[in-house]
Amino acid sequence: MKRGPQWRFRLWLLLACATVAGCATLDKWIGRREPEPPWLGVHFLTPGKSGLPLLRRAIAEQLAPMGVNVVIFEVNYGFEYESHPELRAADAISRADAQALTALCREHGIRLIPQFSCLGHQSWAKQTFPLLVQYPQFDETPLIPLDNPDIYCRSWCPLHPKVNEIVFDLMDELIDAFDPDAFHVGMDEVFLIAHEQCPRCRGKDPAQLYAKAINDYHRHLVGKRKLTMLMWGDRLLDAKAMGYSEWEASANGTAPAIDLIPRDIILCDWHYGLQEEYPSVQFFQEKGFRVWPSSWKDKEPALALLKDARKKATERMIGHLCTTWYAAEAPAALLGQKGGSEEYPEVLKMADTLRACMKQLTGKANVEKH
Fold first, then answer.
1. pLDDT at 10 over 80
2. Is residue 370 part of a domain?
3. Domain co-membership, 16 together with 58
4. Can you tell me the distance from the alpha carbon of 236 to that of 285, in angstroms, rounded to the nearest whole number?
5. Which pTM does this prediction carry?
6. In the chain, is it the N or the C terminus that has fewer CB atoms within a 10 Å radius of its CB?
7. How far apart are CA 340 and CA 333, in angstroms?
C-alpha cells in the first residue's frame, strides 16, 4: 500500500508525543537502566558445616552493617554432592545449609555467589583434592605423587574428554542449591598447564588450553545456565609487560588467552603487594571486561589498590572485593573471637583491613568488634 505525506506526519507526531510524555518511557524503549550499585564484596572459603553458625553471625552482625552487598562463597568439594558423593570433603555442607545461607544473605541485601575452583588449585600442601584422587586419569601431572613434592598446586587436564561432565554436574548442584545469578570459577595460579607429563596437552599452546577451559565453563554457566561468570584475572596478565610477579600475573604463556574469551566475564583483579599503581585495572577495562579489584590482609596495599582503581574507573569498574583466605577463622576474627593458631594475628589483620576498605567505600565500617 502506498504511504503518502500524511503517514510520515503521523509517525513524526507519535514520536513527538512520546518524547513530551516523558523520557522515562523512551528510556524503557531503548533499554536504558540506572547504574548498578557498586559491588562491595567479601570472599570466604567454606568453613564447613561446623563453621556455618559463626559465618552466619559474621554476615548478619558485621558484614551487612558495613555495607557489604556481595559474598563470594568458595565451596569446592565442601558440599554433599549427590551426583558424585565420592567427591565430598569432610564436614561438607548440605543443600539445606546452602539454601539457608542464601536466604540469610538475601534478608540482609547481600548477593551470594558460589565458587568452584576450576583447572588449578586441585591440591594444597600435601593434600590432593578429591577429583584427582578419585579420577587420576584427569591429572595434568600424573607422575607426581599425591603428596605433591616440589609443586605448588595440581591441575586437571583441560583436554580430557570426561572431566567437564563431572565438573558440570558439581556446578549444577551448587547452582540448584544456592540459586545464584552468578558463578565464580576460580582459575587463579594455574602453573601446571601444557605439561610434558600429560599425553593430551604436551607441546600445545598454554594460552589456547587456558582459553579452551574458560570457554567451556562459559558455555555451560552463561550459555546454558544463564548466569554471570566471574574468575580471577591473574593468568590473563603478562607478568613482564605488567611488572607483576609470577603469582599475580602469568609467566608461563597463558596471558594471550585474554583475546580468546568472551568479554562478559567479570575479572577479579587481585593484588596483595604495595605498588605505586596497578596497571592491570586499566588494562582489563580497555580490553572490554568488567573488573573487580581484589585485596587481602595488608592495609596499605589494599587501600593503595582501592585508590588507584578509583582513579582509573570507567563504567566497567564494578566495585571492590576483599578476600579472607582463612576458613573458619575468618568469621571468628570478624566477630572478635580469639583463635588458637599461629596465623591468627594475620587473620585479625585481615579483618581490620576489610573494615578499612569498607569504611573508605561506604563510611559504614565502624562496626565494633564483639
1. no
2. no
3. no
4. 13
5. 0.90
6. N
7. 11
Read off the pLDDT of residues 299-347 as tens digits, 9 standing for 90 and up. 999 999 999 999 999 999 999 999 999 999 999 999 998 766 777 889 9
For the segment 82-101, the average pLDDT, to the nearest whole number, is 98
CATH number at residue 101: 3.20.20.80
The answer to whether the beta carbons of residues 306 and 282 sit under 8 Å apart is: no
Are 317 and 341 within one domain? Answer: yes
Contact at 8 Å (CB) between 161 and 199? Answer: no
**Total tally of structural domains belonging to the chain:** 2
Flag whether pLDDT at 1 surpasses 80: no
Residues 49, 1, single domain; the answer is no
**367 lies in a domain?**
no
User: Would you place residue 290 in the very low, low, confident or very high pLDDT band (cuts 50, 70, 90)?
Assistant: very high
Q: Are strands 127-128 and 111-118 parallel, antiparallel or unpaired?
A: unpaired
User: Could you read off the pLDDT of 13-51 as tens digits, one per residue?
Assistant: 343 333 333 333 333 333 445 668 999 999 999 999 999
Determine what percent of the chain is predicted with pLDDT higher than 90.
85
Instruction: Clarify whether residues 108 and 243 are in a common domain.
Output: yes
C-alpha 355/C-alpha 351 separation (Å) is 6
> Do residue 24 and residue 44 come from a single domain?
no
Range of the domain at 17: 1-31
Q: Using CA atoms, how far apart are residues 3 and 28, in angstroms rounded to an integer? A: 29
